[in-house]
Amino acid sequence: MSVIVDYYNYWVVVFLMMAGFYTVIAANNLVKKIVGLNIFQTSVFILYISMGKVSGGSAPIVAEGITTYSNPLPHVLILTAIVVGVATTAVGLALVVRIKRAYGTVEENEFKDKDDLI
Amino acid sequence: MFEQHFLILPIVLPLMAAPLCILLGQRQLAWLLATLVSALSCVISVNLLYAALDQGVLSYAVGGWAAPWGIEVRMDAASAMVLSLVTAISTLVLIYAKASIEKEIDSSRHTLFYTAHLLCLTGLSGILSTGDAFNLFVFLEISSLATYTLVSLASDRRSLTAAFRYLVMGTIGATFILIGVGMLYMQTGTLNMLDLADRIAQSGPSRTLNTGLAFILVGVSVKLALFPLHMWLPPAYTHSPSAVSAFLASTATKVAVYVMVRFIFTIYGVEYVFHNMGMDLILLLLAIVAIFKCSFMAMAQSNVKTVLAYSSVAQIGYMILGISLASAAGLMAGLLHVFNHALMKGALFMAVGAVLYRTGSVDIKAFRGLGKKMPLTMAAFVIGGMSIVGVPLTAGFVSKWYLVTAALEQQHWLIAFLILLGSLLAVIYIFRVIEAAYLKKPDESAASKDIKEAPMLMLIPMWVLALGNIYFGLDTTLSVAAAESAAQWLTQSSMSVGGGQ
Amino acid sequence: MILETISNILLIVGAFFALTGAYGLFKFPDFFTRVHAASVTDSIATILLFLGLILRTDFDLVAVKLVFVLVFVLLTSPTASHALAKSARHGGVATLAESNNKDNTDG
Amino acid sequence: MAELINLLLLGMLAVTALGVVFLKDLFAVVMLFGIYSFLSALIFVNLDAVDVAFTEAAVGAGISTVLMLGTLSLTGRQEKMSGHKTLLPLLVVVTTGAALIYGTLDMPPFGNPENPVHQHVALRYIQDSPQEIGLPNMVTSVLASYRGFDTLGETAVVFAAAIGVLSLLGLPKQDRAAIESGLESHLVLKVVAKIIIPLIILFALYVQFHGDYGPGGGFQAGVIAAAAIILYALVFGLPLATQVVQPGLLKALAALGVLLYAGTGVASFFLGGNFLDYNVLAADPVAGQHLGIILIELGVGITVFAAMLSIFYAFASKAERKNIQ
Fold it and tell me: What pTM value is reported for the model?
């Protein structure tokens, strides 16, 4: 029982990550691949934030009467990672727009019929 | 007064030059600035290399905060060696790029090309210098984003799909590394590499650390295109502009190899990775499969850039093979091959780029008769090709020699034999191109008659690298000393940490 | 004490309206009635919930911030509903009455 | 109670993620992703990460979703076929998931204050940073000072993304003839937009300069300010927006922000400190830290604002051109 209380958070996060990961590698549409990538990354963010939580703690902003704070370091790391994520998303979507213009399609299986693999 | 800041300058200089390029807005000025900054970084890096060989390790606390609370920039022989290599190649590629991109990239995007190149250089220098596991991820992403841009700059539409595939796989790899670093942090509470090594040695193996290692290794393997995660590399190298292919082939994957070395030897330690988890066998098998599968793939291609791209994946196999031997000699051979392979692939891709510049094609048919029309370019190609094969008196021979010696040192006769057999395959795919250039008759159409030698700005960097192949094949003092000291430093620190258990 | 009771009542009623809004969003038959249900959540439920929350503060900076948020939501949410409905109309989505008429004439 | 809310939110996340996997309507998929982002922002609040929640809501649910919708308008909203190769991906995913579950089994338990994560490096941030840096928001202290080098890298990433998108899509040309566009008939929208756009910009400034004391900072402020202009462009049309905030200016601003950040670091060289050492920027170390953090947060804010807005411009200009054709 205590195993479940201790780890349920991580297990759900693993499920979410894998849902995103599956979407990236199995989706046929390039936009959906990017959405999957985002879901994958967001789930990893939840993993990091989960490890920074202290039961009974509060947000790491100094306030009177509070002695237990959650760990600020994972928050900082994830702030950076979120920015990296949106940067990748923007470039990826720009590529999708260009691919649509150059090939007329964004469906992966339709490329294989033409001259390129993706 | 800047000596104590030398460690950070190879990162900060290109980082500040990149936005300056945008502000200058004029492509000639941007080129000049980028080349100068890159050359300056190179001078500083070589300086650092000598300092690192002298003093062992250099450290710099960014923001004045001591590690592990702040981010530390650390330089030892291994990082200084690869950093000197990367900055040197970057400078040569920038000189080469000026002429090369004229024909391959729309002129309105030249400033963006130089900016992206500088950002990529920033990222690579950052990866090589940092002593912090998360900071490494950030710089990895800077270099990756810049790389996706660089690949997609070519006017060929296939560069778009190549860049997209690279982006998806690269981001998955980076996210895997992020998961792995998270697991490390979760178990140790720190991100500084040395501190991590101490705490992993204290706590001993655990499932979380094992999983973390697995994820980091898979993530890095995507970045360094280890078979079977190499699928992004051939299209990316084939369809990107020649200057970009030359730069990426000789730096990006090399830096990824360095990251793998860092995680295996500095953070986890040989004991943990190879003895407890048995990673050496997996890496060894993948490396050998990579050498053979991709050498055969290289033989079947008609696009010379694709030939070279598959050859890169095969050569990466040699580097990983050296690492997987788990000995100082093997690691040293691996690092030496990192250095030498950068020289040969740089020269080869530059030669192919020059052919593209003059003939407009990189198909093997376009090479027919070029031995007479572009003698200097093809001579550089031959030197680079011989180096890949491992002909004596070239740099490639030196690293293959050390690799075979390292394998024999551990009585791995079969591995030594396979390394030699792999070189034989390289003879075949390189010789196909050389045969076309020197032995086949050119087609006598009107267009092919005015093919001339490549312009000076392309020939000079190409020949610097080609001569580098010969120089480091004859005089091995610097490269071998650097690789040896790097390997000793890495295995020693890893052993001493392992011994602390 | 009294404040807390009032706050509780406000919060419960607010939550009730939020729930009905969500329920309506699923149950109502066409686009426009659904927008109507959704805007119940935006307006009355938001007002009640925020008032309930304000009563729970010490009437300090937090209360002021809550008032700001409330004003902002009251400005934007109805506008969003309006824009939705108008675009739907513009794009040719028929109301319930219209589609009924159409069915009758067709039949 | 907090655990219960957490569990509920995680459940909703799981449902949303499944929706993304199985739905074929890409518009719905993108909307579900926005919801996914919002839900994870709620989880972040519940797990005490207010700064992260703020950013996730602004970026994931805001900018990313807008960009995805913009892409959809150009590429079509239906995924034509899927499941052309489900077995291998499923195998890969199950293996990876199994490896992760295996890894979790001896992880430090969730929320336990004895975990190594809370015992080592983080202690100094929590105990000493209010004195060393002088700011109540520890996240800002760590972000801008202890790990300021990471944040410099992050700014460079945003800049790199802007460069990438510009090289792929290009910036819109200023076209005075096309000024009469936008949502002409939506009078209510126009009036309300006029009221709230100044408020949004005011809020962005508040977030920018209050980030030292509460949640917020340069990144969030930059995104919010960009959102204000994006709203303007949506309601009044892209050509008018490019008159107000010119694309060329944005390019320069994005570069200037990076230079401001790195320049602050270099200034420390000349004052005798290490790179990004703010202690030397003023006579008193704490005052120096404060000055340094304000400067670099400003750099981050400027770059993020300019980069996000030029990325939006690039996407929007492609959409507009398509509509005209």
Answer: 0.93
